[in-house]
Amino acid sequence: MGLANTVLFSKNGYLVFATYRNEKDGSELQKLKNVHPIKMDVTNAVDIQNAFLEISEIVGNDGLFAIINNAGIMYSAPFEYADEERARLVMDVNLMAPYKITQTFLPLLKKHNAQNAIKARVINIASWAGYIGQPFIPFYNASKAGLIGLSESMYYDLGLLDIHVVLASPGVTRTPMLGKATEDGTNNLQALPKEGRAFYKPYLDHIKKMGDTSGNSRFLPTADVLAKKIFKIAESQKPRHKYNLALDAAFMDKIMTKIIPLSWRFALNKRMYKLNIKNPAKALSQKELIQIGDKKYPAVS
User: Within 13 A of 15's CA, how many CA atoms are on the CB side?
Assistant: First the structure.
């Protein structure tokens, strides 16, 4: 979505400071008119501060009109085998980066406000994965749920500075991230110990199939379609705090979490993700237990 936003905003006359990490992306951004590429790792405080100094020199007292916190990564793995380092990276990119970037660039938003009637705004890109939990992506769920809470708190605090804070949830989108998520799950499955692979393979294989199927669905919005909606939010004089940018995001927010009972939601998710299928590995482990009285003990061959 980041590139689609960059292209659309720059074509409509905005000077866009677009961040990148690898040189190939930076070279592609340099080809775009009205785009100033900034090399920045969103988890690196030094990079963020250097970006602030570089942009400050360019914009001067005009300041910044908007920040779009768009960076996001996913990590798929069973909770039992989740890697702490990768879990922390998800939280840093999806949750802590919007906090650190916005806080660092506040002086430039305030400079814009000092000279303009239409006030500055921060747009945080969330996900309906922050509204409900799903299997095997615990830290993606946690990071997006955290971003939803952070955004509301920012809405109150930054509102005192006349800065609009918007939470935008795009839903499932036809972007490379969907394919990367299913590929990541497959790679992580192979990294599990033998017993872990045997137990979780049926579930992760099903999720991969779901991702492969839905990733090509013509019913999913493209990044270009969502960029137009984000552009409209940015152009609004007084944007709302919350926008669901797709039908699935609106359904999760307004129906799944507010109308459908929690027990029904659990049942629906278990059925959709086939968590209630007969697991051969689980059945095998149960056969290896013998019953003595009211207790079970490992069978000895």
Answer: 9
